[in-house]
Amino acid sequence: MKPLISLLLALAFAMPAQASPGARGPNGEHLDGPAATTASGSVPRVVTFTELFELVGHLSGGELSVMIDRYETNEPVLGGTLDVEYKNLKARAKFHADMGDYAIDDKKFLQALSVPGKHALLFTFTAGGESDLLEGTLEVPVAAADDHGHGHERRWWWLAALPAIAIPAALMVRARRRGAKEVRP
Prior knowledge:
Layout: H1 2-14, E1 45-49, E2 53-60, E3 63-70, E4 81-86, E5 89-92, E6 94-96, E7 101-104, H2 107-113, E8 117-127, E9 130-140, H3 142-146, H4 152-155, H5 157-183
Antiparallel strand pairs: 1-2, 2-3, 3-7, 4-5, 4-8, 6-7, 8-9
Transmembrane segments: 156-175
Signal peptide: 1-19
Protein name: Copper resistance protein CopC
């Protein structure tokens, strides 16, 4: 019985971990889908700053997630208003109080940003009595644009391997049980 338990444990550890739908990571990215990666292995991002604010945005998991901090203190600026412009498209970000990020999930806007190339973005941020314009460039390489889907076809690869592992394991257990019954007096 121990080989079967060992086999099941090995199979469980070989399976990829899956996040529940809508789960978010520490930077506000969706965890229920693979991140769009660049050739260097990182998510396409935009980084910019002014004397007041510093902005870091990531294009991943079906949204553009943006974190904004005070430039001098690196203190997060929460609950503000963020508008983003790209060419003739405009989108307002939704503030997620639970993660402290501003997220844009407008399909048309994200579709335009997912095209490979350099995308000049204009961010208008207002918090309290302060307002600022921040300009930044989001670079999306070909590899990230190709991988910017939901990737569902890659999630269940292990299901195809399950019969290849389970059938020999079951046959091995059955053979051992038969051998153990034959040896008993």
